[in-house]
Description:
5 helices; globular; Nuclear Transport Factor 2, Chain: A; 2 domains; about 170 residues
Amino acid sequence: MTKQLALDDPCPCCSGQPYGECCAPIVSGDLAAPTALALMRSRYTAYALGHIDYLKTSLDPRWQASFDEQSTREWSEKATWKGLEIIGCKEGGPDDEEGEVEFTATFEMDGEEQHLRERAKFRKRAGQWRYIDGRVKSAQEPVVSEGPKVGRNDPCPCGSGKKYKKCCG
């Protein structure tokens, strides 16, 4: 069941913009997401409002055939979506072909507040940003170097817990 939201209501993605100026044109298909971040925000909004068709079409085409519409719909409807926090982005701009967005989605299910922290990967195909996959991160705080420069053997600032040279270095 799709939830209705007025265009001047705050967007569920927590951008601070009205829904009609933020995710509504992307979720409706009137506007392509200009960045990986915009696609990430619109996918969160689609979960919050029950736009399951959009969740499928915003996937990379190779994953669309295996998309589980029923379980996605159940999760979308059972959860009370509380907010989206963007932790960081790596590339994913209008001129990029790939990007990553790390985020935490907060929702309540069965009376319990839950936090899904993920590093999501996106790729632009035929001018359209698509969700490729994501890696769920543990609830532990990431290991981050406090120094001004990250050394090869320092913890990676992305929070993976790996050494910089084995991760983003």
